[in-house]
Design a protein that fits this description.
The complex is a heterotrimer of chains A (660), B (199) and C (93). The C terminus of chain A is likely disordered. With 660 residues, chain A is mostly helical. Chain A is globular, with a radius of gyration of 25 Å. In chain A, 52% of the residues are buried. Helix content of chain A is 68%, strand content 1%. A two-stranded antiparallel ribbon of chain A has the order 1-2. Chain B has 199 residues and is mostly helical. Chain B has a single domain, classed as Four Helix Bundle (Hemerythrin (Met), subunit A), CATH 1.20.120. Chain B has 6 helices and no strands. In chain B, helix 5 packs antiparallel against helix 6. The radius of gyration of chain B is 19 Å and the shape is elongated. In chain C, helix 1 packs antiparallel against helix 2. The mean pLDDT of chain C is 90. The longest helix of chain C has 28 residues. The termini of chain C are far apart. Chain C is 78% helix and 0% strand. Chain C has 93 residues and is mainly alpha-helical. Classes of the chains: A mainly alpha (660), B mainly alpha (199), C mainly alpha (93). Chains B and C meet through helix 1, helix 3 and helix 6 of B and helix 1, helix 2 and helix 3 of C.
Chain lengths: 660, 199, 93
């Protein structure tokens, strides 16, 4: 009986029961739907077994959008609970679970797959490659991420969500204080998706270092490629720290070790230390690709080359190193001496310098440019002032002495949302709108897109700026309620209104996709934005081999030069193209990892051991497998290219009208 | 498959070169993995609770055997790769075989060592120090174990399919992995055992 | 037979045995903690470098620069993590 009690929801509430029913119904509905429309074969051959970077990118994109709404539902519940004093919508335990899952879902299962989506979709195209260096590994990365995400998301209906915060500090996250399996979910789900992220890091680094088109030296790479390279360097060196920390946390909870306990020599602060040795670089893993996207967008829509290319690269390299030198600023109040706090205060403030350099570079790119106010550009222009405010409050927090006042208040919450939402989320939505036509063959509606932008921006300011004030007045974060006497009520109500506006804004994105799918013209050509880098030089939608001929590159804006200065990108005869074979093994390994994770969470040892053996069997099979890939022959390429030319010919006539 | 004959077989195709660079980047990640384990160990080594201290449980003899065995295996696999580059398949297989036997010997001594710790009351649950020690050694040992299987698979493939560019590539990458484990052991030997016995 | 034992690798092996023997001084003689740690740091890092260059052929291909950069970067971050943590949690607590 005791065994089954672990499966019970530690915190029953009508909302969770309703979600249980909803999840069950939706899952059954999806399964029945796929079977009814006979789509299993299609899904298996085209998606589950694919190793094509573009399809993997699209799967990341869909997952990220779904998770955005999952995390957003958490957010709106929290803001509703805090919208007035002594609200009874959620009780303390439920609130704890919700702020924990909100943080983890948004960082690990929304922002990470979102940036991986753009890396997968854009990088091979932007460097003129056929695919990533290790296509099969890439598929495995995705399925591990997906297994981790699903594992984390079933927590609230089977066994209970983690409730110790997205940082899960020990001893709170230890067995004594977190008795449900919730924190086990946290440990295992993050472990599995973290392994996937690490593999993506290795894959992308190798791809960018080795597979660039002829002529593209390091200093001729487009800025998004540079930012991806640096972000993946950080991934490779930061994620192993998380792996080890999670391993130790797991053994503490499951096998009774004493790494982070308060007895037998354990040191709870070691967890906080490791968490932030990974966690701070993680922030830059998210923001650097966002900077890269902004750089591409700002230069495209200012019709100017990016100002200060070299200083952009230099500042990113500097950021990558500094990102590993600041982690203590997350726990200035933990009790270390003034010497340590001073060192880390200074390194933290130093990071503002390269970031500032980038802000000025963007401003100088805009200066005297012919600016087109498209939706991606609006996000980029909104980002600059909003992110700067986030950065400046960050420097305030960096002063360790003053941090004693700000620590664990809503001021901090306002600060990091102020960097992440305009910094990362806006960049993702800008990138989504910008790259949408390349991968789906039609453009998102500009009018709806603009209303989305304004809803999100106004909503964001209303939701988070009041928190700076309540934070300075002493409203602590992670408190599920407050009394009327504190006077926090009106400003929190304002936050709720802002959050509601943002929710409407996100809903308009879904509507926009639907509306544009129905109404947007399909003959948009391969370069609807008049863009500058190589990803726009191939056809739309992109053929599976990306480029029929490998492009020859002379500058960081190869496509622009080809259009304006007459450089010839594609020279020479067509040759057979070597492509990797599809494989179902990554998908199966994802399932096995899911089973292994679930079994460990509930300490059911027999399936756990069997699943682990299954993982090693898959690896052994891979070792013995002979897989030389396949070739697309010249004849076939010519046929495919001819089809595109036909379409292109029709487009040429309607070209000027559709261009934005 | 395009072959480039100016380079050793393991570098001869584009994919082979990607594999080698990718594996080096993976080793970069492994450096951080072990660095984190060392960090935990150095932080927790003095926190023994009511359990034994490093000096109480470490023995010099098994550690010396392990060190010598692993250093030699790193040498023999280097010779194996050298033989492979000369195209001497049988010599290569012999050196790889010796390497794996030495690896097996290392693992045997490590298992003896772990049972010894268990008998003197230094179990996984005893204290922060023992947990950090056994996790660090165990992670290294798990790498060696995985390497034994991997190496065995490679020997079988070279036997069956000969010295193809693919097999040469796999063998070379395996040698990188094995040398790396030796490097990690040098740090374990110096900063866990010798440092612990010095204090 | 002789061609199977290249001088470079044999020398490398002998040298690594010597370095191990030197490291053992800290166990068999009575040195202060500071001197002992210095010896260990020097021997361990030389030996790691030896493996990297002699046995692992890190610089042999045209990717040598990328490889050395990666490893060097990794070692720097590793040292920052180890010593930063020790500073925070032990030396300045």
């Amino acid at each position: 009986m005791e065994f089954f009690e672990r499966f019970a929801i530690p915190h029953p509430s009508p909302m969770i029961y309703a979600s249980m029913v909803a999840i069950a119904l939706v899952s059954i509905g999806i399964l029945v739907g796929i079977t009814y429309f006979k789509k299993w074969g299609y899904l298996w051959h085209e998606w589950f077994t694919t190793v094509d970077h573009k399809k993997i990118g699209i799967m990341y994109l869909i997952s990220a959008l779904v998770m955005l709404f999952r995390g957003g539902a958490d957010a709106i519940l929290m803001r509703a609970q805090l919208s007035g004093p002594d609200m009874k919508l959620l009780d303390g335990q439920h609130y704890n679970e919700i702020f924990t899952t909100h943080g983890v879902v948004m960082i690990m299962f929304m922002a990470m797959p979102f940036i991986f989506a753009f890396m997968n979709l854009v990088i091979p195209l932007q460097i003129g490659a056929r695919d990533v260096a290790f296509p099969r590994l890439n598929a495995l990365s995705f399925w591990l991420f997906f297994a981790g995400a699903m594992l984390f998301n079933i927590s609230f209906v089977i066994g209970g969500s983690p409730d110790a915060g997205w940082t899960s500090y020990f001893p709170l996250a230890g067995n004594d204080f977190s008795t449900s399996v919730g924190t086990n979910y946290y440990m295992l789900a993050l472990q599995i998706s973290g392994i996937g992220s690490l593999m993506t890091g290795i894959n992308m680094m190798t791809t960018i270092l080795k597979m660039r088109a002829p002529g593209m030296t390091l200093m001729k790479m487009p800025m998004f490629t540079w930012s991806t390279l640096i972000a993946n360097v950080i991934i490779v060196f930061a994620f192993p720290v998380l792996t080890v920390a999670l391993l130790m946390g797991t053994t503490d909870r499951l096998f009774g070790t004493h790494f982070f306990t308060t007895t037998n020599g354990g040191m709870d602060m070691l967890w906080a230390n490791f968490f932030w040795v990974w966690g701070h670089p993680e922030v830059y893993i998210l923001i650097l690709p966002a900077f890269g996207l902004y750089s591409e967008i700002i230069s495209t829509f200012s019709s100017r080359n990016l100002y200060g290319y070299k200083s952009m690269v230099g500042s990113m390299v500097l950021i990558s190193l500094l990102s590993f030198l600041v982690w203590t600023h997350h726990f200035f109040t933990m009790g270390q001496g003034a010497l340590t706090n001073s060192i880390f205060s200074i390194t933290t403030m130093a990071i503002a310098v390269p970031t500032g350099v980038k802000i000025f570079n963007w401003l100088f790119t805009l200066w005297k440019g012919k600016i087109r106010f498209t939706v991606p550009m609006l996000y980029s222009i909104g980002f600059i002032p909003l992110f700067t405010i986030g950065g400046v409050t960050g420097v305030m927090l960096a002063m360790s002495a003053a941090d004693y006042q700000y620590h664990n208040t809503m001021f901090l919450v306002a600060h990091f949302h102020n960097t992440i939402i305009p910094g990362v989320v806006f960049a993702m939505l800008a990138g989504l709108t910008y790259y949408w036509p390349k991968f789906f063959g039609f453009m998102l509606n500009e009018k709806i897109g603009k209303s989305t932008f304004w809803l999100l921006t106004v909503g964001f300011v209303l939701a988070f700026f009041p928190m700076y004030i309540t934070g300075l007045d002493g409203q602590a974060r992670r408190m599920y309620t407050y009394s009327e006497a504190t006077g926090f009520g009106p400003l929190n109500m304002l936050s709720f209104v802002g959050a509601a506006l943002m929710a409407i804004g996100f809903a308009t994105i879904v509507y926009n996709v639907y509306y544009s799918y129905k109404n947007s013209p399909r003959n948009i050509g391969s370069d609807p934005w008049d863009a500058r880098s190589l990803e726009w030089a191939t056809h739309t939608p992109v053929p599976e081999y990306n480029f029929a001929r490998v492009p020859q590159v002379f500058s960081s804006e190869a496509f622009w030069d080809a259009k304006k200065k007459g450089h010839q990108l594609f020279k020479g005869e067509l040759k057979d193209i070597h492509m990797p074979n599809n494989s179902g093994v990554p998908f199966i390994m994802g399932i096995i990892f899911f089973i292994a994770g679930f079994s460990f969470i509930f300490a059911i040892w027999i399936p756990a051991v069997i699943a682990l053996i299954g993982i090693f069997v898959c690896m052994a099979l891979r070792s013995f497998e002979l897989d030389h890939g396949r070739h697309i022959h010249v004849k076939e390429i010519k046929e495919i290219e001819a089809q595109y030319e036909e379409v292109q010919g029709n487009e040429a006539r309607s070209h000027t009208t559709t261009r934005v | 498959m395009k072959l480039d004959h100016t380079q050793p077989l393991e570098y001869s195709t584009d994919q082979n070169q990607l594999n080698i660079l990718g594996f080096w980047i993976f080793l970069g990640a492994e450096i951080m993995l072990f660095a984190t384990l060392f960090t935990a160990y150095f932080t927790l080594e003095g926190r023994t609770g009511s359990g034994p201290t490093p000096a109480d449980i470490f023995e010099i003899t098994p550690v010396l055997i392990e060190t010598f065995v692993l250093l030699t295996s790193s040498f023999t696999i280097g010779l194996g790769v050298h033989a492979m580059r000369l195209g001497r398949k049988n010599a290569m297989l012999t050196f790889f075989g010796i390497t794996l036997l030495l690896g097996l010997g290392f693992l045997g001594v490590e298992i003896y060592e772990f049972t010894h710790y268990y008998h003197v009351g230094a179990t996984y649950q005893t204290s922060a120090f023992t947990a950090a020690l056994l996790t660090t050694l165990g992670t290294h040992g798990a790498h060696v174990t995985l390497g034994l299987f991997w190496g065995l698979f490679i020997i079988l493939q070279v036997k069956k399919r000969g010295l193809t560019p693919e097999n040469a590539n796999k063998s070379f990458i395996f040698s990188l992995y094995w040398h790396f484990l030796d490097v990690v052991w040098i740090f374990i030997f110096s900063f866990i055992y010798l440092k612990g016995m010095m204090m | 037979m002789k061609e199977l034992f290249p001088a470079k690798q044999v020398m490398g092996f002998v040298f690594s045995l010597i370095l191990t023997a030197v490291a053992l001084l800290v166990y068999f003689t009575d040195l202060s903690f500071g001197v002992g740690m210095t010896i260990l740091l020097v021997t361990a890092f030389i030996q790691a470098f030896l493996q990297l260059v002699v046995f692992m052929h890190a610089g042999e291909s045209k990717d040598g620069k990328s490889i050395y950069t990666t490893i060097f970067y990794g070692v720097i971050i590793a040292l920052i993590t180890v010593f930063g943590t020790l500073l925070i949690l032990l030396w300045d607590m």
